[in-house]
Design a protein that fits this description.
Elements: H1 18-27, E1 32-37, H2 40-48, H3 53-59, E2 64-68, H4 76-89, E3 92-96, H5 105-110, E4 115-118, H6 124-134, H7 168-177, E5 180-185, H8 188-192, H9 194-198, E6 203-208, H10 210-221, H11 231-235, H12 238-253, E7 257-262, H13 268-278, E8 282-285, H14 294-303
Parallel strand pairs: 1-2, 1-8, 2-3, 3-4, 4-5, 5-6, 6-7, 7-8
């Protein structure tokens, strides 16, 4: 069943290369803001009220939108609808898949997702597994015996970008230039191995999963009291601030991008601190209903 029922935009409204331009802006040192959708009931209500949530995210100044399949479930048809709508309005559409070893990652790429935020990556092998199933060669490694889940050649949603590709190589090149993989650092082990993880071609940076990272730090340090603190206090604790700083330094040393996700407006001041003092560039603000909170939008307008 289709999530949307409103009229499609005309081809003239499609905007090509949005993820490529996002990457170019990151290279120039710009801060890029995105948000996340994961609650089907919220989305369904918006659509029934006549809203186009993907378009509204774009109009509020966000550069990318993440659909969360790690903690929620969407069927393939709905995911395809999101991708098509994103291509129509000109916003980079990302997905956070279920787990690194099992989901149909190549399918997500084929139906139009251009960003992959991979949860709980703690070793280079996990990251490389995703890279080989999202990109085409030469970024993806040659297929090995008993390899599985590799991406077949398909133009997917590329024609929606108005591209006229002459051959397979053109399609592979265009695809590789308009896709990025971001790992999530959510455990001290991930920090320990982050230098090696970020050394993999096709990995552009990391976005911290704050709550899971805090759980991991508490377990490693044997300080369970740490995760009994109120969220805002925990996020500003010395142990977390050290982790933010260490991750930023590793990203800078590898010329990759550090990012973070906060769902509540209470953390806007912390976001600004991470941008100004540690150089964070990939910022995810809010989730579902609060994506258009005035404080979030003011931050975007100030930094954009």
């Amino acid at each position: 069943m289709s999530l949307y029922s409103s009229t499609r935009l005309e081809r003239a409204d499609y905007k090509p290369n949005v993820t490529f331009h996002l990457l170019e802006d990151l290279k120039r040192g710009k801060v890029i803001f995105g948000t996340m959708f994961r609650e089907f009931t919220f989305l369904n209500r918006m659509i029934k009220e006549g809203h186009n949530p993907v378009k509204e995210v774009y109009e509020r100044g966000y550069r990318f939108l993440i659909i969360d399949c790690e903690h929620k479930a969407f069927n393939p048809e709905t995911l395809a609808e999101f991708a098509e709508r994103a291509h129509e309005v000109g916003i980079s559409i990302w997905i956070r898949p279920e787990q690194t070893s099992e989901p149909p990652i190549s399918l997500y790429a084929d139906i139009g997702y251009s960003g992959f935020m991979i949860p709980n990556v703690n070793c280079p092998e996990e990251a490389k597994f995703v890279v080989d199933r999202v990109y085409f060669p030469p970024i993806a490694s040659p297929i090995k015996e008993k390899d599985r889940g590799r991406r077949g050649f398909s133009l997917g949603d590329i024609p929606r970008d108005g591209q006229r590709l002459k051959n397979i190589k053109d399609g592979e090149r265009y695809t590789n230039e308009n896709i990025l993989v971001i790992v999530q650092t959510e455990h001290p082990t991930g920090i320990k191995n982050l230098t090696d993880i970020l050394s993999i071609k096709g990995i552009y940076g990391t976005i911290i999963g704050t709550n899971d990272l805090a759980r991991g730090i508490a377990q490693k340090k044997g300080n369970e009291y740490f995760i009994e603190l109120d969220f805002s206090i925990m996020y500003r604790h010395d142990l977390m601030m050290k982790a933010y700083k260490d991750i930023a330094k590793i990203c800078q040393s590898k010329r990759k991008y550090a990012g973070i996700h906060f769902t509540e407006v209470d953390e806007v001041d912390l976001v600004e601190k991470l941008i100004d003092e540690f150089g964070y560039q990939l910022i995810i603000l809010g989730r579902d209903e609060n994506f258009n909170n005035d404080q979030f939008i003011r931050l975007i307008n100030t930094r954009y």
